[in-house]
Amino acid sequence: MKFVLDTHTWFWSLADWHALPPRARTVLSNPRHAPFGLAAISLWELAKLVEKGRITLTIPVSEWIRRAQDPDLITILPLTGQVAIDSTTLPDGFHSDPADELIIATARLHNATLITADKRIQRYGSVKTLWA
């Protein structure tokens, strides 16, 4: 697995393709790169965004998430004990919300590039990122 998707990247890849920059769209549309990794915490994070009204879906969130897990395109990467521990000991003092820390730790564990628009994560030097 070469790439892990941040939560917003996963959502936009299915709900708002043009919100993604050309470079990210190029990678995501290339079947050679599939399946893409998705940290299990992203399922929770998306559901919380819907719960808080920051994302609106036309179907129940559980149904949207079920449909958005095409096994040919997405591999859900579990929240293992190693990921949990690594998220609390990230190098260079990355401090953010726990979901970001778990997503970063997941990408690092799989030696994958994280596709993210998050500027804090992009500036963080201890995980490979791709966006623009």
CATH superfamily: 5'-nuclease
Kindly state the mean pLDDT as a whole number?
96
By CATH, the architecture is named 3-Layer(aba) Sandwich
The CATH class turns out to be: Alpha Beta
Kindly name the structural category: alpha/beta
The secondary-structure element order is: EHHEHHEHHEHE
> How many β-strand stretches?
5
- pLDDT < 50 stretches: none
Strand percentage lies at 5-15%
How would you portray this structure in words?
The chain contains seven helices and five strands; from the N terminus they run E-H-H-E-H-H-E-H-H-E-H-E. The chain has 132 residues and is α/β, with parallel strands linked by helices. It has a single domain (3-130), classed as Rossmann fold (3-Layer(aba) Sandwich). A five-stranded parallel β-sheet has the order 3-2-1-4-5. Helix 5 (81-88) crosses helix 6. The longest helix has 12 residues, at 98-109.
